[in-house]
Amino acid sequence: MRTAAMVLTGVALTVELIWILFMHGAIGWITAVAVACVAIQLGTAARIRAINIVVRTALGLLLLGSVADRFGFLGAPGDPGISWGSFDAFTDYTRSLLPTFLHALTSPAAVTATALEAVLGLALVVGFATRATASATSALLAAFALAMLTSVGFDDMSGYAVTVLATGALLTATAARDGHRVFAYRRTPAPA
Length: 192
What we know:
The chain has 192 residues and is mainly α. Helix content is 69%, strand content 0%.
């Protein structure tokens, strides 16, 4: 499973880099830091626990920051670096991600997404059930990536580096293991 996660992460990072370098894409500095952490995690084959902890924490803080943005804690709608600035603006954005026949579910979808991001973000930051939490985060971000790709397009999806973050969460899930030294490389048993 880790090999598949590493391949997917490598593909996501490569696509993101090509988009930034050759298609004039741009991501915010906070997202760029998280993407760099995922790249380092991939470069170490997710074997250094300290790096996995940094990635897990960065993912959690991004999720919590996204929730804070929805409630206006980071600034008002339209302020520089603010995606939504209010829950109403986030609800409108959620509507744009849903197919027309699901628009009646916009409010429940916005509330559910916010609750999931808050719970998963907090769990990632504190390190609670890391394997399950990182797996759920990966699934949630993959669902967001699919919704964004099919509704608002590739540029918006890549602007948030959603695929890189989803695969980074998957790589974190495959690397999660309790009881190991923080800076030790993990030894894999030799095949019998």
